[in-house]
Amino acid sequence: MHISSSGCATHGLQVRLSLHRRPMTFAAAAEAGIQTFRQDTAREKELLNSLCEKLSALPGLVLTGAHEAPHILNIAIPGVPTQNTINILQDAGICVSAGSACAKGHRSHVLTAMGIPGETIDSAFRVSLCRDSTQEEIDTLVEVIRRDILPRI
């Protein structure tokens, strides 16, 4: 008699089969995870493209970067400080982050190196999408920016 890794007493043959099947089970789980990741990434990219298209139609708004990551978009509204934008969006139930991922409480050196003007950097905020993001949320974000933030320029 052997003790399995789960602590249950079983016959030796069952333990060997169980241990033998673990790599196959892990491989199946990894493959399912890869498929889910691919589907999530494709969906996030569609949402990001929709967001970029809708935001590009708004005057006074700047989209920075190459938009290569399917789930992150850096947006700036020159003339409106980042914290004001964050507060307005939070009041509408929308969570965003200040600046860029590489800035911790100060002006982003990456946005600076990209040649983005200081006024634009000081108004930048980051939108992150995830597998649970919806087109309705994208539409709400665009509407709140259009209605509540752009008039402050």
Can you put this structure into words, describing what you see?
The chain has helices at 12-56, 82-91, 109-113, 118-121, 135-149, and strands spanning 2-3, 9-10, 62-64, 72-76, 97-98, 124-128. It is of the alpha+beta class and 153 residues long. The strands form two sheets. A four-stranded antiparallel beta sheet has the order 3-4-6-5, covered by helices on one side. The radius of gyration is 23 Å and the shape is elongated. The chain starts with a strand and ends with a helix. Residues 1-15 have low confidence and may be disordered.
Keywords:
153 residues, alpha+beta, 4-stranded antiparallel β-sheet, two-stranded antiparallel sheet, 52% helix, elongated, disordered N terminus
Q: Rounded to an integer, what's the Rg over CA atoms?
A: 23 Å
Please report the total strand number as a whole number.
Answer: 6
Please write the string of helix (H) and strand (E) elements.
EEHEEHEHHEH
Distance between the amino and carboxyl termini: 76 Å
Supply the number of helical segments.
Answer: 5
Biggest sheet statistics: 4 strands, antiparallel
In terms of topology, how is this protein built?
Blueprint: E1 2-3, E2 9-10, H1 12-56, E3 62-64, E4 72-76, H2 82-91, E5 97-98, H3 109-113, H4 118-121, E6 124-128, H5 135-149
Antiparallel strand pairs: 1-2, 3-4, 4-6, 5-6
